[in-house]
Amino acid sequence: MIAALWRPREIVAIEIQLELAEMATRNAAANGLDGLRVINADLRARRIDGLAPASCDLVVANPPYHALRSGRASPNPGRRLARDESAATMADFVAAAKRFAANSAKVAFVFDASRSAELLRCMAANTLEPKRIRFVHPRADAPASTILVEARKGGGIEATIEPPLMLYDRPGTYSDEARELMQNIPHTRGG
Q1: In this predicted model, what pLDDT tens digit does every residue of 77-89 receive, in sequence order?
Q2: Largest CB tally within 10 Å, which of 55, 77, 138, 159?
Q3: Cβ-Cβ contacts under 8 Å for 62 (sequence gap 6 or more)
Q4: How far apart, in whole angstroms, are the C-alpha atoms of residue 64 and residue 187?
């Protein structure tokens, strides 16, 4: 989505699962996203070929939402790897964001709202200071399901708490804001 919406000069994606890395590469080629490069690697590795430390102006991460042993694990190994911390933890994602973000770079996380305090503490401990925080709710009468955090590496301590994003006005009907956000996403040819 970042490549399609903003067309940055270069995007480097790290994907631990070879099958998904290959799929992302094919999808980028099918959609003419020439600036997107996918590296099949483990973000916990000290060195990743093709990605230098402190080289990114923006790091975006969506760590597994579920802490290890905090619920029923998926029987599908790929889904288990993506959804729970059976490999990399949220703290591993934060450490990798710090490692690859340039000084004063932006870092954005999409994470489970129920673990927001843990995420914010971990980011601050890694000098990734939250600047904008927004909670996403399925409906106005439901608790937040997701937290969106934009931080700055080495930034000051002030943060803006933005109004919540409500996904649905009623069952099956997106809110005006959610609908507008989705309409601004370019449709791609790949899958």
Answers
A1: 565 555 555 678 9
A2: 159
A3: 109, 110, 111
A4: 26
